[in-house]
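Worked example 3. Consider a protein that binds magnesium ion.
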Amino acid sequence: MFGRDRSLTSLLNDTFIRGILFQALIAIGLFLSINWLADNTLSNLANQGKTLGFDFLTRTAGFQISPTLGTWMLDYKVGKSTYTDVYLIGIINTFIVALLGILAATVIGFTVGIMRLSDNLVFRWFSSFYVEVVRNVPLLLQLFFWYFAVLRAMPSKREKLELVEGVAGLNITGLYLPAPIVSDGFIYSFLSLIGAIAITFLVRRYALRRQAETGQILPMFWIGLGIIIILPVLVHYLNGSPLDWSLPEFKDTGPKLRQGYQSGAGMVLVPEMLAVWLALSLYTAAFIAEIVRAGILAVNRGQTEAAYALGVRPNVTLRLVVIPQAMRVIIPPLTSQYLNLTKNSSLAVAIAYPELVSVFAGTALNQVGKEVEMIFMMMMVYLTFSLMTAAFMNWFNSRVKLVER
Amino acid sequence: MTRKVIKAAPKKTTMKKAIPSDIDTQAGYVRIEDAPLLPPPPSEVGVTGWLYKNIFASMSDFGSVSATLKSVFVAASTLFILYFLITQISGLLDFAIFSAVWSDPEGLKRQACWTVEQGGALPNGWHAACWPFIEAKAKFIFYGAYPSDDLWRVNLTYALGGFMLAWVMIERLPYRKIVGILLLTVYPVMATVLLTGGAFSISTGTIGGATILGLALITIGRLGKAGYVSGAFGDLALVAGVCGWLVILFAAVLAVFAIDFDLEAIDTRDWGGLLITLVVAITGIVASLPLGILLALGRRSEMPVARFLCTVFIEFWRGVPLITVLFMASVMLPLFMPEGVNFDMLLRALIGVTLFSAAYMAEVVRGGLQAIDKGQYEGADAVGLSYWQSMRLIILPQALTHVIPGIVNTFIGLFKDTALVSIVGIFDLLGAAQSTLADAAWSTPVQGLTGYLVVAVIFFVFCFGMSRYSMFMERKLNRSHKS
Amino acid sequence: MAQPQNTAEQSVDQKTIVSMRNVNKWFGQFHVLRDINLSVDKGERIVVCGPSGSGKSTLIRCLNRLEKHQDGDIFVHGIELNNDVKNIDEIRREVGMVFQHFNLFPHLSILENCMLAPIWVRKTPRAEAEEIAMHFLTRVKIPEQASKYPGQLSGGQQQRVAIARALCMQPQLMLFDEPTSALDPEMIKEVLDTMVELADDGMTMICVTHEMGFARRVADRVIFMDEGQIVEQNEPEAFFNNPKSDRTKLFLSQILGH
Ligand SMILES: Nc1ncnc2c1ncn2[C@@H]1O[C@H](COP(=O)(O)OP(=O)(O)OP(=O)(O)O)[C@@H](O)[C@H]1O
Ligand SMILES: [Mg+2]
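Given these inputs, the predicted complex is written out as structure tokens:
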């Protein structure tokens, strides 16, 4: 690598040395600019009379947060809870709406994606219509639509839109649903559900072994469904149904101020959360539908034909040949859609659903004024989530990569 | 005994041409007369065939219990979806066109769109678009608070841009390359001057200094080219030459900005509506492309430090939501700058959006680079091109044409994402529309839906159009690839 | 429901395995199979040839319902091929098929490719299925590749796996759709050798192929198709040396001409 003539110029011409020099230059440049930015920041902060530090996290927060899962879990109280609680509430609320969104988006997306490949024209029309409309309109607009145009147009506080008579209803203050009231014996019903799942797994193992030995195939789907439904239901009722529901209570008589849904009965999903959930899941579902469609199309027609030619039935072909191959194509972009959904939940700030950005980088930041620290803390949450997703994706890709020469 | 369930077929025609059954097993069969070309059975073509294939085939399997259940389910959902589609689409048409209020000749404002119950003249239960409201707000939705007398400047900018873009996209026109270069270099400067009014206070000293520096660098470059500078410093001299040209260009741009064209200065705070949406989206895409290319090259480079930095940069921006980026740009950017340097809000948002989309662009370009055959790199090396030469002449042209659809898709995403700037207080299309909803003079129950419908349609037209264009490009690329 | 009668009712004697009577098929307006009459006896080896687009693939794909004919009768192994799912299942169990592009399942190993159908269709115990698979992999001379994946094999090896995979169902009839035309010349021979061995063992075969050497060597009958019709059929010697139809002559001169 090093030539005989080791003069300065020839050293500089050496590709290896040059690479190092170039990289050193980059590193120095980067260091200098970061230094410059940090200097500026510090002097600007000093001018505003601020210092860096995280001591604000132990201070108590002095503002209301609308009742959500996070406030309920951390028992948020104005004047008692700290900014750490606010941070955690933001994370919990982001997480719950992302989780619900992912579930709904997956179900809708797979349904619409499969419908797009149907040989039924009506299904194809519907799904293309849905996908094209939803994909080409900004998510924020859809969020506004659901929140301001749909949910704000619901009946007023003293009225209701009955969804299921006496059980579920909707008005401008939210969606009212029955809340479960768990009494002591319920733990057995719950345990029996877990037990049923465990038993199903055992039966499945038995079925596989039996198939390996005798070739007989058990209808595992139906057996599993039977066990998982019948066993817990049986235990539950033999035990005297130890689960009660608190139904939402609606009053339209008595003093005007007391009319409407009563607090303390049933549970309520606030309209902000409903709007975020609807918008996120419907929007992401359109992208998932396209991914699913592409994934299924990516499986060569010859694969199905070969299985059919061997006499394999269509549903078994789907399960053993098409789905395993389609899933390899589907899962990586699907995970990045999940990630997008999680990041997009930050748009909830626009309608003040108390998730991380809204409650921490919004309300709390206005109160405390620690821009640098708080924005850093907020970004860390999203970055952690992204890195975890990326790690999963690498693991998945290395696991399912088709073996090629 | 339903063994022969094969679909209705013209039996007669084939029966008459029955061949003795032993002839085909016998060796030496020759067909003497052509079999007739027959029309297909009705199940194959025509309206019935089409209906069967596209609708009824999916619900006519009654071979087993589960197949029957499936057929019934499909039939029921088909009916339901058909009903849903018809009611929704007719409902939309009714809302937007047939039942809508189209004019407000008496200047009643909100009362023009009120029902009797609400104090107006429309029948109770009426629920449709209130177009006079949009008519009254159109200027604001499209231009924000931009002075009405100066709207010609915005329109001229649009017209110029549209014209040049169309020129570049239509393949039969001559000089497409030159127009493209003008579009990317001269046009942005012109647009800036037209939209802001130009005449920035830039001292002659700055411009002069930059010019002198540029000239000096170019001279060094010339010397290097002529061979007066030896060894590795020769390369440095060439780099200096290139930088010199860039500095001169920069000085020229500054000079143009400093000229007073006698246009009224218009603060970006007065910009709004579709104008902001287009400015943010187009600046974002144009600025992020070169940055994205550099980042992509860096991420694929063999130098660990460069690779590491580019990877961190890309993954950071891709890992956080755009909202947080905009927050950061609006809150933290002023902190980062030395005292006295102050960006206006729009510029901050533009910087945030550019960095954000550069990361996405980098990944798109990287995909294109990865798709290029290793032989191309080896070929370029083999004919003795330097790294930058091989990138510029061989690799990037191929990689970029490959990823045009991806770039357009990123652009569509960015275009929709511009709506987010309204959260940091810039009135883009959506933000402007949303703020008109607060106008009590037009307060009606249909105000919101009417406004959202307009914004949705504008976004849809842009995004859908671009996605069709990207599909068209994709098909074209595939075709040219095969031949 | 109708199976038991099928064989009795259909008065074709036991030695016939395929019989097509007045079969017609259309793709949209396009009349792709025109009045096809064909019967194949057990143990017969048939080669189908003809110009591109003449309907050869469509013909043999109709024999296991990868394509649906719209007119005429097809009986395979004494079972009528119609909309009845049970009949289709039964026929597909008895008919093996080898495709031009192999169509191996890329996510399954070679062994799993071969075991899939015996396990899920014939309900064979696993150990036995593995034994069968190894038996046929040995027969096509690649037992050592059993644990690899299709992507790791050469084209010729992949096609031999595809043959073994079809044989694992122990079919009565094998269909080949241009099994060698996607292969490099040096790989063609290994696949043809396998097919010749199979023929020598007495397997009933219908092969679409342009390998005329193979046709001369193993075929009992050569069928020439053009424009969706069977134009000429004969023993290979007579077919090649003394073609009767002008279209056959033209075709033969084109493929043997150089
Ligand atoms: N699924 C289909 N839909 C419409 N037309 C088809 C379809 N499959 C085949 N065809 C047409 O039917 C004709 C016969 O096709 P087929 O594949 O049977 O020809 P072939 O004799 O096998 O030709 P080759 O030697 O090229 O394989 C062709 O003209 C083809 O274009
Ligand atoms: Mg063919």
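Take a moment to read the result before moving on. Residues 447-482 of chain B form the longest helix (36 residues). The CA atoms of residues 166 and 225 of chain B lie 39 Å apart.
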